[in-house]
Amino acid sequence: MFCGHAEFIVTQTDVNIEAEALLDGIITSSPSGVESLFNKTLQLKQSGLFTGDFTDLASRAAEGNSLVIGTNPAPSSVVYPQKSSTDAPYSASEASLRSAVKIPTSFTFGQKPPVILVPGTASTGYIAFVGNYLKLLTGQSYADPVWLDVPNYLLGDAQVNAEYVAYAINYISSISNNQNVSVIAWSQGNLNTQWALKYWPSTRGIVSDFISMSADFHGTTEAYLICLSAPELGCTPSVIQQEYESLYVNALRRNGGDSAYVPTTSIYSATDDIVQPQSGTGASAFLQDGRNFGVTNAELQTICPGQPAGGVVSHGDVLINALAYALAVDALTHDGPGSLSRIDLPTVCAQPIAPGLDLNDFLLNESTSIFALLAISEYNPKVAVEPPLKSYALLN
Which GO molecular function, any one, fits this protein according to its record (predicted)? Predict the structure, then answer.
């Protein structure tokens, strides 16, 4: 789904103290649950920290286009219409699939390990990650990030959204000297990635790590509340598909889809304001390891109880969480999933925000929820029921 907020103050010496206090007031006065998104949007606008509208935020998505190469190169091997005869068919054109892959001018085409950043519902790759993993990973020796801007902000059919992930995995590997890639996904992006791994088997052998943030692999009981402001208008297709026990979710999870297809690190918060349930083995983000690839299920509050990194962390602020970042880096720099045994937990749990991020990044991350609410309100046509399953999903 999309982001909310965490209850912490960003404590860094170069942060403006007045803005910090104002943010703390906004954060601690907001109720929990989906309604906090609406309240926080209003409060951020009233505070003067955000004054824009949908047009202003949409221009933020376009900002990323100034950072990418002009034309994406052709793959070195066939990846469309199928890389393997076992892959599901694409409904989107190759031109659309390829243009959604945003390759920054800094990309090394295989000299460093590629990492694909997959956004969540009502967002773009640039908006979702500019205030966190784009900044944190760019220039690192162990990661070379690209991002996806899926059409319609991932509000359309989630099955089609997954096509963009499947294509990106094979495409980025192909233009990177056939190097393996890793995927960092947030919210719906995790469902799309798991769907791609399930129904495009050619992707599995070239994904070194799947790092999952705030996943709703089992859907969420909160999904339809997002559209309750105007129930007579219906909702967006992918939001309905993320309802708990939707057709889409059940298709994904059956026949072993509730187990990892590649080494997977799933990071989630029990206080998630969008995805519930999100605690214990019943958490929507919890993945099984039936294929023995290695899975780390990391509930922030269980690992860092009563500490800043394990406090009240919302759906979106998992992306700026210090423990989540430490696990992501550990996964990217080791074989298999991220391991808590290799992390200095006393130090990491005491950090309220990932090292390297500041107040501006916090605000960028927070604005994602504003963009999401506006994008959902602008999306048409709204629907009352989820899209039918693709024929290939009916068979497996």
Answer: hydrolase activity
